[in-house]
Amino acid sequence: MVVDCDPASAARDAIAQLEPPLTEILVSTFPEQKSSWLRRNVVDQIRRAAAGLPVEHVTSEPTPAEGGKTNVLVLANETVIGRPLLDRIRERAARGPAAFLIVAPQSDPSSAPHPDAERRL
For a surface tag, which of 51, 57, 92, 112 has the fewest beta carbons within 10 Å of its beta carbon? Predict the structure, then answer.
């Protein structure tokens, strides 16, 4: 069933409405570095809303985007040409199809032209 976009509210609604009554809750998220739910403490919110029901949390790796390709955002400025970043990009590319979007913010936001960032990029 599709419910409220807030996961804690959705859990509260399901607990109140489902018959027969729930006996446990299983929450699935991406790992911490990819999960907006974990950054917002949603699992803890659901535990508070669970009214004593056991809540189990599992993490799952994201599945590749359609066609097997993933999209990777790379944010770097002066380190964009550094060997550690380039090695990591190569390592990620070797694991499977990926599209990389590299964003290099300008160093001096008060300056309209940003030739250094453009040159590094």
Answer: 112
